[in-house]
Amino acid sequence: MATIFSRIVAGEILSYKVAENERYYAFLDINPLAKGHTLVIPKQEVDYFYDLDDDTLEGMILFAKQVAQKIKAFSGCKKVATVVLGLEVPHAHIHLIPMNSEKDVDFTREKLVLTPEEFSEIASALRG
Ligand code: AMP
Question: With a threshold of 0.90, does the pTM exceed it?
Answer without folding.
Answer: yes
